[in-house]
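[Automated response] Your request has been received and processed.

Submitted sequence:
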Amino acid sequence: MHVRWIGSATPHQPPQSGAFNERIQRSTDATTNSTVSRLFISKGPYGVWMQTRDANDRVAQLERQLLDAEETICHLRAEKRAAWRDVERLSAGSSSRRGTERREDAEQQRRLVLELETRLAEQKQAHALEQEQRMAVIRDQELELKALRRQLEEKTTQYKELAQRHRDLLELDDQAMLKQRVTSGVSQFSICGDESDEDDEAKGTKPANDKVGRARAPADADAVNPKWQEELVRHPTPHFDLESPEVAYILRAWTKNIKKMRYLRRWLIQVVTTKGPLPDDFPMGVELPRLPPEVRDGFLTLILPLLRKQTQREILAHSRRYNDGVHTDLRFRVVPRE
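Generated structure:
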């Protein structure tokens, strides 16, 4: 007789509840005990009856086990459906929350975009208004600038006309003075540099006994040495010309009379720039009386080398001192070279 152990090779069951496991264990123990008891019963009618009873008990037990298994399966299916419902509810809740969050984010983004568009439109309008105001200011400034340019052109034209008239008057004045010198038979003229333009105008009306001004020196101090001495020292030629500010500074230090200063500058420039012989009515010498030391040195060290820069005429310089030991008479003579 072969012994088969019930429940020793049962198929794999899904996880079950605790009550179901206890029922299965009791059924398995009863079957095992019944099988073991049959091993010790001899064959016979009683043995057959016992086997039949055991078989019926086993069938009943298996039916109970089947019912319990079906019940367990129903419970598990119900738990599964409940779990699925929970999962669906959670999924629906998550989807709803995500949808709500998305809608809120989209609404917030729309509000932000609308606010930014509004601000941009306001800024564009303000910028356009400011630009229009600036363009209006620029147009006004351009009109004002054009008016100022027209005024400047008019003033420049007037200045050029007045300057030309002034040069023409100076030319006429110089020509008249030269003609007067020639008609009087003087080939050398003397210019006193301690007079201003006002002095020339007031010279005819100033009384002889006017004591206002510089005090006169004693008679022996005003006396001059009648002997002229030639200036033989050769100074280097400056890098500037007779039109330079340095020469103008020396002439202003020599006299405040604009007419005399212009006439002397014109004489110096004509001596240097004239090509060929000088005109017949041109004075061949100039004498500058009673020069202070700084003016004398300026004429000897700067202006005399500029006169000697040309090679067509020889320039002779002579000086004589006053008895006061300060002032000096200076004379320039032009000698044509053969």
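Summary generated for your ticket: Residues 57 and 306 are 157 Å apart (CA to CA). The mean pLDDT is 78.
If you did not submit this request, please reply to this message.
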